[in-house]
Amino acid sequence: MKLKFNFKKGNAMESNQFKTLISEEGLKSTRQRVEILDIFLNSTGHQNLAEIYARVAKTNPKIGYTTVYRTLKLLTRLGLAAQRKFADGETRYESAAEGTHHDHLICLGCGKILEFEDDGLESLQHRIARRHGFKIFHHRMELYGYCSPCAHKKTRIRRKG
Amino acid sequence: MKLKFNFKKGNAMESNQFKTLISEEGLKSTRQRVEILDIFLNSTGHQNLAEIYARVAKTNPKIGYTTVYRTLKLLTRLGLAAQRKFADGETRYESAAEGTHHDHLICLGCGKILEFEDDGLESLQHRIARRHGFKIFHHRMELYGYCSPCAHKKTRIRRKG
DNA sequence: TTGAAATTGAATTTCAATTTCATTTTAAGG
DNA sequence: CCTTAAAATGAAATTGAAATTCAATTTCAA
Question: What is the dihedral of CA B25, B30, B33, B34, to 10 degrees?
Answer without folding.
Answer: 100
